[in-house]
Amino acid sequence: MNLRLALVRFVAAPLLFAATAAAHAETIRVAIGTQDTTINCATGGLLIRELHLLDKYLPHDGKYANVTYDVQWKDFTSGAPLTNEMVAGKLDFGTMADFPGSLNGAAFQKAGKKSVFITVLSGSVDGSGNGIVVPLDSPIHSLADLKGKTISVPFASTAHGMLLRAIKAQGWNPDTDVNIITQAPEVAGSALKAGKIDAHADFVPFADLFPYRGIARKIYDGAQTHAPTFHGALVDAAYAQRYPEVVVAYLRAAIEANRLISQDPEKYSLLIEKVTGIEAPVDYLYHGPLGLQTRDFTWKPEYRQAVATAIDTLKLLKKTDVNLDPNTFIDDRYIRAAFKASGLDYDAALKNYAKTPLVANDAQTGKPIADVRDVAQVWLSNEQKVRNYAQPGEAFAALDKLEQGGSKVRAVYVRDHDSGLKLFANDAWYVKDAHGAVTAFLLKSGADAYALRTSGAVLDYAAAKTGAAQAVAAR
């Protein structure tokens, strides 16, 4: 009898342990709100989801040994509805820009709760990413030409903040010297084509997407305000306090997404296009080497200031009356832990302001490109990789031959000689100097000034391209 009882206990013990474990097992929700079409949020949402990166890092030991994860994704076209669902407890994480992110913090605080900004995903310490565009046939070529004109912008957005700062820099009164109206980018595209507005200010990627699609011309880049802007990720503070390891796991997945897109920006730009419909050349403009923004996960002083500026501006616009403290709203503990767990040096990254570098050989000469100041790039439709050229004239001459051979072009990129901003070539102005060298500029005023200094001629894209081809043919 004693032997039989012992056997029964031996067999029953594991079953009893399993039942006890099951009784204490927890299902942890990981609900993430994304903005897929806001392409500089890709490393905090779209790429993690599409590449299943979060599964690699979610903890399964210690207090998480018997946990089941319920990972949920929900995409939004703007930050406001995402914030509503976070405050309602339907989402744990969210990705958005400095302005809507600050409204997120204010909304949580008003509800007696708290959210925290845990990382930057992509941004510009100068403000690039926001921009102002005008209809293709508009006589307007600079911000100064917009006095007395109607400008639309998504209200309470980071682009709205840029527009107000740009108007202030002109010495104008935003209430009397211009007519600012609210308009979502989806509506603005049609309004630009119909000539119903004089200009439209917007955030990533619309100030570059509209020119790429032939809807508008870019006349102003947010970098001209020298006011930092970024998109980042937030989390419900109570959730982060309960599951700090899950927050770190999410950030480690974002770090890996960043590493992957850095290694192969063309491949993942095409993936972003497949998911969002935002054309790969626009995605590459941001995520490729020397891109419009840096994918910088560290809380640089400029990004902390961007949050403070957003809070002040939103209060000025009467969009919130909450006194949100940026010093406690931003919490860098989790991203520091994620960097450490990923074998990265956070403090070194914090000091690094460089763009994603271009390490490439000239497609024409085969030699390494040492000076990238005036580099040009050509992305053909039938090629997986972008071709790089040391000078725009060199790229245009090669492009002429490629097109004559039947090649179709996805995009051609140049850099603004004054600022280093990456541009679509057909949206730039050019100066051909006395020696035949071609130099690119975002603004016609920049090209005009350079032409005076170099005894050069100002050209549009078509003329610069034709001239480069003719120069090669004449050799």
Automatic annotation (TrEMBL):
Q: Name one Pfam family in it.
A: NMT1_2
The lineage's top-level taxon is Bacteria
Per the database record, which ranges form the Solute-binding protein family 3/N-terminal domain? 27-279
In terms of InterPro entries, this protein maps to: Solute-binding_3/MltF_N (IPR001638)
Task: Look up the signal peptide feature and give its range.
Answer: 1-25
* Keyword annotations of the record: Signal, Transport
Query: What's the stated role of this polypeptide?
Result: Part of a binding-protein-dependent transport system for aliphatic sulfonates. Putative binding protein.
Per the similarity annotation, which family is this? Belongs to the bacterial solute-binding protein SsuA/TauA family.
Q: What is the name of the protein in this document?
A: Putative aliphatic sulfonates-binding protein
- State the organism of origin: Paraburkholderia solisilvae
